[in-house]
Amino acid sequence: MPQGRPPISTTTRLYGHFAHQIEHRPQPLAVAAYTLFDQRGVDALWIPLQVPAEHFAAALAGLRHLRDFAGFTVTMPHKVTAARLCDALFPNAQACGAVNAVRIDPDGRLIGEIFDGVAMVQAMRAHRAIDAATRVLLVGAGGVGQAIGVALGLAGVGSLAITNRTQAKADDLVQKVRRVAPACDVTTHAACDPAAFDIVINATALGHVHGQGPLPIEVARVSPMKQRVGTSGSDAMMEQGRMPPQP
């Protein structure tokens, strides 16, 4: 495998990350991107792009004409707007109405996808099969929860129970999953017993961000032989056969 990126030249491809952050924050995505570029010898640069929401559409319109740009990632508050401005969406993004990654084709077309749910499903499949017999409890129906719920439906889970503080968001996610996965038995509940499910996913900030409060899941109700907790942003997953890491 080639090591190190080639020198910057007229053939160097550019990738951006659209955000709008008031305070300075570290850019772990930049470190990951450059590590991959170096490992694979990719002639590319990854650039953080700070754009206020009211100017995002104009910035994206200009980006279509910059032939050096091959794509970009995007975070809040731009995910929904970016999806509306794309020329084509993959099934997950189409169902969610949001994107976090966009490819720019040579003709300037924007092709969008959202990977929050896709990544969760891949992580689950690394440890167990996902099929019509799989019962999943999803706690949280915000942006990340929406993406995970849709991806679970497209992955073929048989049963999906959704619980969320705001019932309207849970109801909205139920309809999205039913549209993309009619065979999935998807319901909403004010509260669920984790012991009744094969996999439990926490798609809220609770339990992950200091000061946000404890996990919204009664972990004691999940057998130690059926637990695995993995974190990705605001996600926690409990799955058969693994113990959660110690704090």
What features would you describe in this structure?
By secondary structure, the protein is α/β, with parallel strands linked by helices. The protein folds into two domains: 13-114, 3-Layer(aba) Sandwich (Rossmann fold), CATH 3.40.50; 117-239, Rossmann fold (3-Layer(aba) Sandwich). The chain is 29% helix and 22% strand. It has helices spanning 28-40, 56-63, 79-85, 91-96, 116-125, 143-155, 167-180; strands at residues 13-19, 44-50, 69-74, 88-89, 101-104, 110-113, 135-139, 159-163, 185-188, 199-202, 231-232, 235-239. It has a six-stranded mixed beta sheet, sandwiched between helices. The protein has a six-stranded mixed beta sheet with strand order 9-8-7-10-12-11, with helices on one face. α5 (116-125) crosses α6 (143-155). The longest helix has 14 residues, at 167-180. The two termini are 37 Å apart. The relative contact order is 0.10. Residues 225-247 have low confidence and may be disordered.
